[in-house]
Design a protein that fits this description.
The complex is a heterodimer of chains A (311) and B (248). Chain A is built from nine helices and 18 strands. In chain A, helix 3 packs across helix 4 and helix 5 (212-221) runs parallel beside helix 9 (299-309). Chain A starts with a strand and ends with a helix. Chain A has two domains: 3-166, 3-Layer(aba) Sandwich (Rossmann fold); 197-309, TPP-binding domain (Rossmann fold). By secondary structure, chain A is α/β, with parallel strands linked by helices. Chain B is of the alpha/beta class and 248 residues long. Chain B has a single domain (2-212), classed as Rossmann fold, CATH 3.40.50. Chain B contains six helices and 13 strands. The longest helix of chain B is centred in the N-terminal third of the chain and has 15 residues, at 37-51. Classes of the chains: A alpha/beta (311), B alpha/beta (248). Chains A and B meet through helix 3, helix 4, strand 7, strand 10 and strand 13 of A and helix 3, helix 4, strand 7, strand 8 and strand 9 of B.
Chain lengths: 311, 248
């Protein structure tokens, strides 16, 4: 039977929400253990143990694990790999950083962004920013390393009671990589990647000053803020807000595309949004072809009116 | 110091790709091909490092069929000193690509590799990390800022929570994210000059790399289409619909 090791991720003593989704994916493959790498990780391990369907939680405590550095994590993961057929991480920046390093150390290929499990060694994944889906079959005589596209899976239920086992790993931790600092972005505004609601502005917003209407609506909704490439290229918004194929690919429950025409590059970034609302004065804009709810109108009158209606 | 920059020939980001009717891939006939946008950012960063006097040479490498020479000419026009084409199937997997790059890093004695964080065709995002693992050296993925200081570099990374800064000893592999820089436009005289710059051609066999893929990719399909939406007349209609869906 397949045995899957899910790589837990934690920050500031809390388990990343994505891990319950990775566990859900992993359950479709085989028996699931979760590994937690932390400095003082009892709380995080206890959280992981509560995820339904987890067989066992392995807690690897080491001061170096306070921050998730791929160079430190990869050899520890490899040291645990012997007993497992599959090793899965999430599609977070931690998972995308460390898992390919693990795969190369094990001399195996990696399957990035697993979106469905077709068999123990057969998966579907998106390519071309989700504009095509492919089947990937992996040889069953090698370990499978993969990242799970968390937007494609629901979180596994809570209510489990897995045993937590402290383990020592025999791994040489390199010294060539050192943590310096972190800076969280955006103040109180939720970050684009995990926000349930996102309001994005496009070229139609017209200027950097005018982008205030986008921020204002976002704050009213408790939403994250995004921008189209056209808006970023025109200097209306910083590039870390760019949503699209070369920016961030997001899947919020509710997405507002304001003054965005709907270039292919932008649509590639919002394909998996729950509900797309488009507000644009050009009734022929391609964004209306993908929007669930379209409103043709001048954003500078629509947005204040919408804010007022939200009370 | 030499900087090695891998570049990939990909379908231009503005092209709406079409899955072939026999599900064997996407249609590439007559489609505009470009340098992978993240690789262009990597090239720009390498050139800026050289222009600051912190590197002597920027070498671009592509692994693929000979058509990829077109993309090498583009980055030579941007300012790379020379280029290497490693002839291989254009669908060579990330692990084999990383092994090829390892051989080149050792051959050229490059101290820094700057790669795009992912190619916008297969979206694997694996090569930089795999290369660092094979070289047993440091990696700094999703970079938005690189500051070199002698034998080490401080790299700011774009992570889900915001920005993270790490310090890595050289040699190191860095992968470029969107915010690292804005690549320069190529001017006509540079294009002419680039025609005289050398492109070496190597084979996988010459580098001792086994180009057999481990994964079997099949059954290409278009994603399921979104249900057609509706239009509302005014803000009241919009709010009503959002409430109906339980979103407000």
């Amino acid at each position: 039977m397949a045995k899957v090791l899910v790589i837990g991720e934690q920050a500031d003593g809390k388990l990343n929400d994505a891990i319950a989704k990775v566990v859900n994916c992993a359950q479709a493959i085989g028996e699931v253990d979760v590994a937690i790498f932390a400095k003082g990780g009892d709380g995080v391990a206890a959280e992981a143990a509560k995820i339904s369907g987890v067989n066992k939680v392995l807690l690897v405590e080491n001061d170096v694990n306070e921050h998730a550095l791929a160079a430190s994590l990869a050899p520890q993961i490899v040291a645990l790999a012997a007993e497992y057929t599959h090793i899965l991480g999430s599609s977070s920046t931690v998972g995308r950083d460390v898992m390919p390093r693990v795969a190369a150390l094990l001399d195996v290929a990696q399957v990035t962004d697993i979106m469905s499990v077709e068999g123990e060694y057969s998966f579907k994944r998106p390519v071309y920013a989700g504009n095509a889906i492919v089947n990937v079959d992996v040889p069953n005589d090698k370990k499978l390393v993969g990242t799970v596209r968390v937007a494609s899976f629901k979180a596994a239920d809570q209510g489990g009671s897995a045993a937590v086992e402290s383990v020592n790993v025999d791994a040489e931790i390199p010294t060539h990589t050192r943590f310096v600092s972190t800076e969280t972005s955006g103040g109180d505004r939720p970050d684009l990647q995990s926000a349930k609601v996102v309001v994005s502005g496009g070229r139609g917003v017209g200027s950097e000053e005018n982008f205030a209407v986008i921020y204002s609506l976002a704050d009213k909704l408790g939403a994250g803020v995004g921008a189209s490439r056209a808006a970023v290229d025109s200097g209306f918004a910083p590039s870390d807000l760019q949503v699209g194929q070369t920016g961030k690919i997001i899947a919020p429950e509710l997405y507002f595309a304001v003054g965005i025409s709907g270039a292919i590059q932008h649509l590639a970034g919002i394909k998996d949004a729950g509900t797309i609302v488009a507000i644009n004065k050009d009734a022929d804009a391609p964004i209306f072809e993908v929007a669930d709810i379209g409103l043709v109108g001048d954003l500078f009158s629509v947005l204040p009116e919408l804010e007022a209606a939200l009370g | 110091m030499k900087i090695l920059v891998p570049v990939k020939r990909v379908v231009d980001y503005n092209v709406r790709i079409q899955v072939k009717s026999d599900n064997s891939g996407v249609n590439l006939d007559g489609v505009k091909m470009s340098v992978n946008p993240f690789d262009e950012i990597a090239v720009e960063e390498a050139l800026r490092i050289k222009e600051r006097g912190e590197a002597e040479e920027v070498i671009a490498v592509t692994i693929g069929d000979s058509a990829a020479q077109e993309q090498l000419r583009t980055v030579l026009a941007m300012g790379c000193d020379r280029a290497i084409l490693v002839e291989a199937p254009s669908d060579l997997e990330p692990l084999a690509v990383a092994k090829t790059l390892k051989a080149l890093v050792e051959k050229e004695d490059a101290q820094l590799v700057i790669a795009g964080k992912q190619a916008i065709d297969d979206d694997s995002g694996q090569v930089a990390q795999m290369l660092a693992a094979l070289l047993s050296c440091a990696q700094a993925t999703f970079a938005s800022k690189i500051e070199l200081a002698g034998d080490s570099a401080k790299v700011t990374r774009e992570v889900d929570a915001g920005l993270e800064t790490i310090e890595v000893d050289l040699p190191a592999v860095v992968s470029a994210d969107l915010r690292l820089n804005e690549p320069r436009y190529v001017k006509l005289p540079d294009i002419m000059k680039a025609k005289r710059k050398p492109i070496d051609t190597l084979s996988l066999a010459e580098l001792g790399v086994d180009g057999t893929n481990q994964l079997t990719v099949s059954n290409w399909s278009a994603p399921s289409a979104r249900e057609p939406g509706i239009k509302v007349e005014d803000v009241a209609g919009l709010v009503g619909k959002l409430k109906e869906k339980g979103l407000l």
